[in-house]
Specification:
With about 220 residues, the protein is mostly helical. The protein folds into two domains: about 10-40, no CATH class; about 45-210. The protein contains seven helices and five strands.
Length: about 220
């Protein structure tokens, strides 16, 4: 019996799966027979939504780095600190570990996530020279690092709750905390809008184009 080395996708087999309950139905079925959710073989307008959320996240990331993340009010003065400025102050004051964690969560992780999402989305436009396994690895990295993007906001929230010294000083979250939280949410939606199955669709199409005989 002949054996094919090419994997058969659900769409090629004429099937579609429900993202909510996992029910498998014939391709073309609009509503899931179990949970009545909408069925899509691929996320509709996946790349367009990915770029829309990506741009929104990039826009909010700019004020998140320019405006104060934390505001400390005392009898003497009012101290405002940006993300990077606060991390540097923590390092200089002896809290190097906390400062490095803040820089990692506020600068390194968001920047890496922006670059990774853009890399995958751009590669899907021209997948002929891109390894699909590499794209999936990059996509998995995006999902992994997204879980740690809110550490800096959590730090500010904890400080606001614990470092409340009554009549002496009060620590409040600044405008950047809202902007940074919005950035995390937008990039999360951007990653969720990116359908990883498109990676294999586009690479299979590229393989078929390369295998077609060229006309003289």
């Amino acid at each position: 019996m002949a054996r094919s080395d090419q994997a058969l996708t659900a769409r090629a087999a004429g099937l579609v799966g429900c993202r909510h309950c996992g029910t498998v139905a014939p391709l073309g079925t609009e509503l899931c027979p179990r949970c009545k959710g909408r069925l899509h073989s691929r996320f509709p307008h996946s790349l367009q939504r990915t770029w829309a959320w990506w741009i929104a996240g990039l826009i909010t990331y700019v004020p998140a780095n320019l405006y104060p993340m934390m505001i400390m009010d005392t009898f003497v003065t009012s101290y405002k600190s940006t993300i990077v400025g606060g991390a540097i102050e923590l390092i200089h004051s002896g809290d190097a570990f906390v400062g490095l964690v803040v820089i990692l969560a506020s600068v390194v992780i968001p920047t890496s996530k922006f670059l990774a999402i853009a890399y995958v989305a751009l590669a899907l436009r021209n997948p002929r020279k891109v390894n699909p396994h590499l794209l999936h690895k990059v996509y998995e990295v995006v999902e992994f690092i997204g879980r740690w993007s809110m550490i800096d906001v959590f730090v500010v929230a904890i400080l606001s709750a614990l470092v409340h010294l009554g009549a002496v000083a009060t620590i409040l979250p600044g405008i950047a905390a809202i902007s940074f939280g919005s950035t995390v949410i937008f990039t999360m939606f951007s990653a969720l809008s990116l359908d990883p199955r498109l990676i294999w669709d586009t690479t299979e199409e590229a393989k078929r184009e390369r295998s077609r005989p060229r006309r003289a």
